[in-house]
């Protein structure tokens, strides 16, 4: 987006709010600004023009916010796996703006901007879990199964935002997305059934235990997994 188009979009945001129009138009204009090549600059200009405050976003530190945005953009370009995770940059940027805002009401913001439930759920999870993940991943985690349990299931947007928080967080997340995330047991429920194990919740427990051992390199082959499954069943009897 060129400078003139951006100015028109910002003006549109402010005018739409003043006219009391619904949030869909505002959301679309905001998204068009945030999808530019230098989103941190666009956010700073939105802040200086008081357009952010008009939609319930009031960053405590615009400097820290724009630095975090810039770092997130760099991590996205540097870590190839992020490009395969269906990350939407506007969700990253909106989440960061809410994270750095005073008393931001995420639910109210999503409602006003007519943000879809799926997108709102991702943004809300980031707001709720960011502080915990930033702290937890701020220390090097050597045990693969522990790192996997902390990160698995988190959105790509969440991982990108946390990776941009610091070097140690980035190292932990890079380790996960570049290798650990694709590790899975070779055996399945069919193999467990073949071992005369009746289908039940035990299947998930057994496969989860095998995954932990595989992540920590304590078992390597399919045969190792089958033998481990038998041992686990014996312990459960």
Using only C-alpha atoms, the radius of gyration works out to 22 Å
- Quickly give the CATH architecture of the largest domain: Orthogonal Bundle
CATH-level-4 superfamily name of the largest domain: cca-adding enzyme, domain 2
CATH class call of the largest domain: Mainly Alpha
Overall number of domains:
2
Strand count, sense and barrel status of the largest sheet are:
none
**Helix/strand order, N-terminal first:** HHHHHHHHHHHHHH
The helix content, as a percent range, equals 55-70%
Write the layout of secondary structure elements.
Layout: H1 3-19, H2 23-34, H3 39-48, H4 51-54, H5 62-78, H6 89-99, H7 106-112, H8 117-136, H9 144-151, H10 156-163, H11 167-178, H12 189-194, H13 202-215, H14 222-236
Description:
- The chain is mainly alpha-helical and 237 residues long.
- The protein has 2 domains: 3-182, cca-adding enzyme, domain 2 (Orthogonal Bundle), CATH 1.10.3090.10; 189-236, no CATH class.
- It is built from 14 helices and no strands.
């Amino acid at each position: 987006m060129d400078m003139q188009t951006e100015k028109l979009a910002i003006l549109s945001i402010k005018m739409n709010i003043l006219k009391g129009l619904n949030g869909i138009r505002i959301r679309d204009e905001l998204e068009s600004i945030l999808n530019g090549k230098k989103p941190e600059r666009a956010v700073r200009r939105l802040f200086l023009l008081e357009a952010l405050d008009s939609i319930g976003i009031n960053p405590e530190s615009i400097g820290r916010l724009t630095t975090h945005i810039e770092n997130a953009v760099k991590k996205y370009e540097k870590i190839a796996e992020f490009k395969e995770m269906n990350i939407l940059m506007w969700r990253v940027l909106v989440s960061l703006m809410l994270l750095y805002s005073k008393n931001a009401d995420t639910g109210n913001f999503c409602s006003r901007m007519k943000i879809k439930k799926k997108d709102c759920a991702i943004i809300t999870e980031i707001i709720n879990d960011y502080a915990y993940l930033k702290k937890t991943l701020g220390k090097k985690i050597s045990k693969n199964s522990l790192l996997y349990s902390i990160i698995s299931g988190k959105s790509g947007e969440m991982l990108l935002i946390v990776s941009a928080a610091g070097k140690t967080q980035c190292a932990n997340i890079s380790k996960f997305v570049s290798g650990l995330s694709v590790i899975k047991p070779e055996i399945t429920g069919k193999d467990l059934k073949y071992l005369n194990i009746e289908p039940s919740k035990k299947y998930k427990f057994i496969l989860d235990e095998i995954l932990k051992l595989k992540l920590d390199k304590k078992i390597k082959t399919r045969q190792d997994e089958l033998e481990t499954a038998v041992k686990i069943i014996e312990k459960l009897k």
